[in-house]
Amino acid sequence: MKTTLKTDITVKDICNGFVYSELEGKGLFGLSGKLTIQPEYQRNYFYSSDNGKREIAVIESILKRYPIGLIYFNKVSEDKFEVLDGQQRITSIGRFVTDKFVIKDANGDEQYFSGMAKDKKAIILETKLLIYGNPSRVSG
Fold this sequence. Notes:
Blueprint: E1 4-10, H1 11-15, E2 19-21, E3 26-30, E4 35-36, H2 53-63, E5 71-77, E6 80-85, H3 87-97, E7 103-104, E8 110-111, H4 118-126, E9 128-133
Parallel strand pairs: 4-6, 5-9
Antiparallel strand pairs: 1-9, 2-3, 3-4, 5-6, 7-8
């Protein structure tokens, strides 16, 4: 199996078609339905369990343009993938972009993604993720 490093997939691509289950605490799908974010063998989403500190930290890191680490995909069929590593980070990003939690701005005011300034939204959506694995045919 050939593995590659993809650097052209953005947060916007991953969040396209993002589905989150409040009942199950799972980020289910993304990448226009091509990506299973939380396959059955993955643990449930827990980044929100500490009053959201970890999920907020993911978003703050992106806004500061810090890397959020490698994400690993596994190709399961011609155009279907699943997350091997990174599902907590991807679910955090998807939950924020779909207004499931807030972060505090520089003034201490709470902000949902939908209420953010356009330039801040752009920083988040245009962030390129480092995806390693065998996603050679992944596209946004």
